[in-house]
Amino acid sequence: MYDVIIIGAGNAGLAAAATLARKGAKILLIEKHNIPGGCATSFCRGRFEFEVSLHQLSGMGTPERPGPLRSVLDSIGVLNKLDFVEMEKLYRVVMPGIIDITLPTNKEELIKVLQQQFPNQRDAIQKFFDFVWQFFTEVIGAFYLNDPDINPKKYPLYYKYALKDTQSVLDEYFNDPLLKAVISPYWTYMGLPPSKLCFSDMAALLFSYVEFKPYHIKGGSQMLSNAMLEVIYENGGEVLFNTEVSKILIKNNTAYGVRTTSGQEFESKYVLSNASAISTFVDMMDDTVNQKALEQYKGSSVGTSFFTIYCGLDCDYHEVGINEETNFISNSTDMEFDYQLSKTLDTENSSFILTCYNVFDNEMVPKGTSQVVLVTMKYAEPWLKVPPHQYNDEKYRCAEAMLKNAEKVFPGIISHIEEMEIATPITHMRYLGHPGGGAYGFDQYVKDSTMFISPKPPIDGLYCAGSWYGAAGYQPTLTSGHSAARAILKEMRKK
Amino acid sequence: MDSQILRQLEGYEKVTTDIEVLKRYGYDYRLERGLAKKYVERFHPHAIDVKVTDIINETNSTKTLRLASKQKYMPPFQAGQYISVIVEVDGIRTSRPYSISSSPDEIAYYDITVRRVEGGMISNYLLDSIKIGDSLQVSAPAGNFYHNPIIHSNKVVYIAGGSGVTPFKSMIQHAVNTGTEKEIWLIYGSKNDSELIFNDYFSKVASKYTFFRYIPVLEEGAGTYKGFITKDIIKEIVGDSSDKTFFICGPQAMYEHLLKELQPLKLKPRQIRMESYGVPADVFSQPGWPKEISQNTRFVIKVRGKKDFTVTAGQPLLQSLEKNHIVVPSLCRSGECSMCRVKLVSGKVYQPEGVKLRQADRRFGYIHSCAAFPISDCEIII
Ligand SMILES: Cc1cc2nc3c(=O)[nH]c(=O)nc-3n(C[C@H](O)[C@H](O)[C@H](O)COP(=O)(O)OP(=O)(O)OC[C@H]3O[C@@H](n4cnc5c(N)ncnc54)[C@H](O)[C@@H]3O)c2cc1C
Ligand SMILES: Cc1cc2nc3c(=O)[nH]c(=O)nc-3n(C[C@H](O)[C@H](O)[C@H](O)COP(=O)(O)OP(=O)(O)OC[C@H]3O[C@@H](n4cnc5c(N)ncnc54)[C@H](O)[C@@H]3O)c2cc1C
Ligand code: FES
Fold first, then answer.
1. Which of A144, A364, A412, B142 is the most buried (most CB within 10 A)?
2. Nearest alpha carbon to residue B273 among B355, B112, B153
3. How far is B311 from chain A (nearest CA, A)?
4. Do B359 and A220 touch (CB under 8 A)?
5. Helix, strand, coil share (%) of chain B residues, nearest 5
6. Beta-carbon contacts below 8 Å between A and B
7. How high is the pLDDT of residue B353?
8. Which residues between 196 and 225 in chain A have a beta carbon less than 8 angstroms from any beta carbon of chain B?
């Protein structure tokens, strides 16, 4: 009999398991893959080791001025097992023939750079950033500092803007579409374009990356996953890899264990799922017990996945014109159209992120080489319609189109690729087990946020954490696992 | 969130109306039961149950086994990839990788072509005990030894040794079946001409199509090229090598020899693709192997939560685990794919060069058990 069984060793599952184990809970973590991490992993090809998902870690801050993630990692017990590298730039935006601009991470300098580029919007730029900071300062005061008396007088901006979409706020401050596009490429980190993206989410991203700087983990995200697993082992936790949970055992609306695909059953007082909401409530439950839980997801749609090209270059990145770690490349300022493209197989016109991992960390690659990853948002649906025997040809076709666009900004890049691996939404489905390969969970409209849907399902003893039960990304999923674990610990103490 | 606060937020009503409407017209996710898995299994089934539908004698020591799925569907693959054959022999469950020798456009079956390895466990079993109509289980296709049209040249030089010719048979047949823009050279090293696998097929293709040139290099007997494959032979056959991509597949010993021979050609690393072809059969002669440890040295392996057993030096950990009925999934058995990854809690293992370990795995003591040879008592976690 375990205290807690955790299904899935993604960020949230690992964070929860480590937190619980450290507090003396008897836990069993079950992962279907042979390695921990879910998205937070890496793989080797030739002389390269490719980072799968982590581009920019948010919320870290420095030891002197810690961000929220730093204290979560501390409380999970992994902070002293990891090294972090701070990025010096926020990002570079390139629209060939239209603009090429690099934003620094320092707020004042960032404003200055934008003002130089858009002199006739000087005041608007200053006002916008002041506004975002005021808005977020209210969020911190009300929620992070747990104000017992939250009201519209004290937090006027919050009450007015919390549920607004990003586009309408941008429109309120700016009229130049180019400026709006330069300020908001992070929408791709959330999976919805400004018109659909909750302003609170966008503000949180901007604030967090600027205040606490984007980071990168030395050795890649697998280092974090392995470190969390280490804490679990050190504290007597048990882990089963290559084991898939097929059923959550439920009696009287109370979860009491799990069954695996090989028929083994394990009992526990609590079950925590890091698997997708659809796997959890549909695949792992009978229709007699999942009604209420499923009811709240009826209006939610499965979120985006990605088309990713992992490249090992046989040269220094400068040689192909790469100077920054994070580069947003697009053909136009039309983010809405860009989003529509994510529902097609078209990569010829899609914008993409190009990350070069060794700009700030030369230990990521063998000497004289570079690691470059190109990612674009793609929903799974069109990929599921590709006949399997055309799948590989389609992969190459899409990759080639995207690389040709990269070639316009980084001439010569294709001729320097020594190793290449292409991942599609189907690849994500395979490794994560999530429908739609949704590494971001459900589409995160305002109505899908934790403001309206509680991550705690209406089944006793069952908890959920990860990108399907709130915001996606490293900081949110690690925090969600950590919080779920604390909620369970609190319950355990009560009994 | 506190509903008191929520209700006062500007725009609250609109969101709740949306939620109500969507709930009414929303989607019933119960319709998706098992669906994600089904989609993925079209590409990467956990395992495929196959039937041997034909056995073709290739040479005295080699046969092709034709494998067709009992479910009538075989996932797609790229010419050059392999499958892992999962078998139970004498009560031991193990697996071996075999390159697919048929073309990807033959979608009804996979051929594997197996050469007898003296003293080998599975090659002998497959050659001697398997009959037409027998059942086998295989993995989905895997491996990274294939032509990437974006980064590899259309002028390709295939260099094969012994049974390492099998992936090239797939590539060449695919080129013939689908028409190709490639120019292909196959340089095939073999002991003598009776050991050449697919010799008739390659000769026929070479005489019919101009895109393909076939050059057997024999250690003994007649033929234009004799001895081992050397830089001079390669230079003479392919001329300028700067615009070509080289694919190499064969036994470990061949790689060492060939890499030396290729050096003067000054190829860039991206011009050379090498298939992993197992771990060295004799680790005792490998660089870095501790001299004091001989074939008679014995160690105790403790598998946490399972059992302890004794092994003799020189055997990969994975093999010892299997002999002791502890099943660890495996694919490449060459230290490359990470499928057989386990955690080494204490003790030491010897890992031959070329094992592809992640930085984080190295840091936290993980090893690829197929390519890890214990050199002390060890404790591991699976
Ligand atoms: C290409 C890409 C780029 C990204 N870039 C960034 C970035 O720059 N910054 C950032 O913050 N975030 C980024 N993300 C997002 C971030 O990686 C994810 O949101 C986060 O890692 C999700 O964590 P999770 O806890 O939801 O678990 P997941 O990673 O979704 O893992 C779930 C785990 O559960 C296991 N599982 C599922 N079903 C079962 C079952 N039945 N039995 C047992 N185990 C099961 C799966 O195998 C998997 O290991 C990116 C993601 C991708 C794909
Ligand atoms: C990617 C890949 C593709 C491959 N494709 C093909 C292919 O197309 N065709 C093909 O024929 N083969 C192929 N192989 C090789 C194949 O997987 C097997 O390794 C081969 O068939 C031998 O397996 P076995 O079980 O018969 O030998 P094993 O029992 O594994 O023995 C292998 C060798 O080790 C020696 N050995 C065994 N036990 C010991 C011991 N206790 N101490 C010392 N030495 C020992 C044996 O004598 C033998 O020489 C491929 C390998 C890889 C990695
Ligand atoms: S089976 Fe591939 S690394 Fe061991």
1. A364
2. B153
3. 25
4. yes
5. 30, 30, 40
6. 168
7. 87
8. 219-220, 222-223, 225
pLDDT greater than 80 at residue B365: yes
The DSSP letter of residue A318 is G
Give chain A positions within 8 Å (CB) of B357. Answer: 44
CB B63 within 8 A of CB B133: no
- Ligand lying nearest the CA atom of residue A465: 1
Q: How far is the CA of A82 from the centre of ligand 3 (A)?
A: 27
The residue-averaged pLDDT of A131-137 equals 97
A35 interfacial to chain B (CB closer than 8 Å): yes
Beta strands A89-95 and A42-45 are unpaired
CB B192 within 8 Å of CB B56: no
Quote the ipTM score.
0.96
Question: From the list A238, A241, A298, which residue is nearest B23 (CB)?
Answer: A298
State how far the Cα of A423 lies from the Cα of A52, in Å rounded to an integer. 10
A299 contacts chain B (CB < 8 A): yes
pLDDT reported for residue A360: 87
- Chain A residues with CB-CB distance to B341 below 8 A: 34-35
What does CATH list as the number for A304-432? 3.30.519
Among A267-281, A352-366, B276-290, the range scoring the smallest mean pLDDT is B276-290
For chain A, which residues make up each domain, given as ranges?
A: 2-83+220-300+443-494, 88-212, 304-432
pLDDT, residue B375, reads 97
| Candidate of B59, B63, B98 to mutate for ligand 2, largest count of ligand atoms within 8 Å of Cβ | B98
DSSP state of A280: I
CA dist., res. A319 & res. A369, Å (int): 10
Domains of chain B (ranges, CATH numbers): 3-33 (no CATH), 43-138 (2.40.30.10), 155-274 (3.40.50.80), 283-381 (3.10.20.30)
Q: Please give the Cα distance from B312 to A482 (Å, whole number).
A: 45
Tokens found for residue B124 = 């002998």
Judge: B144–A391 Cβ closer than 8 Å, yes or no.
no
CATH placement of domain A2-83+220-300+443-494 = 3.50.50.60
How sure is the predictor about B336, in pLDDT bands with cuts at 50, 70 and 90?
Answer: very high
Residues 6+ apart with CB under 8 A from A315: A368, A369, A370, A416
Q: Do residues A193 and A187 make contact, with C-beta atoms less than 8 angstroms apart? A: yes
Whether B223 has a pLDDT exceeding 80, the answer reads no
Mean pLDDT in residue range B169-174: 98
| Residue A272 and residue A284 in contact, taking contact as beta carbons nearer than 8 Å | no
Q: How far is CA B249 from the centre of its chain?
A: 11
Residue of B nearest to A161 (CA): B10
Integer angstrom CA distances of residue A71 from A57, A62, A65, A395, A490: 14, 11, 11, 41, 19
pTM: 0.95
pLDDT tens string A113-129: 999 999 999 999 999 99
List chain B residues with CB under 8 Å of A391: 43, 76
Chain B residues near residue A283 by CB distance under 8 angstroms: 33-34, 37
pLDDT tens-digit series, residues A16-29: 999 999 999 999 99
| Structure-token pair, residue A389 | 């025997």
Which residue of chain A has the CA closest to B304? A238
Percent of chain B past pLDDT 90, that is, above it, reads 90
* C-alpha to C-alpha distances, B235 to A119, A201, B229, B231, B238, nearest whole angstrom: 62, 61, 11, 6, 6
Decide whether A2-83+220-300+443-494 matches A304-432 in CATH topology. Answer: no
Determine, for residues B341 and A297 on separate chains, whether the beta-carbon distance falls below 8 Å.
Answer: no
Neighbours of A223 (CB within 10 A): 26
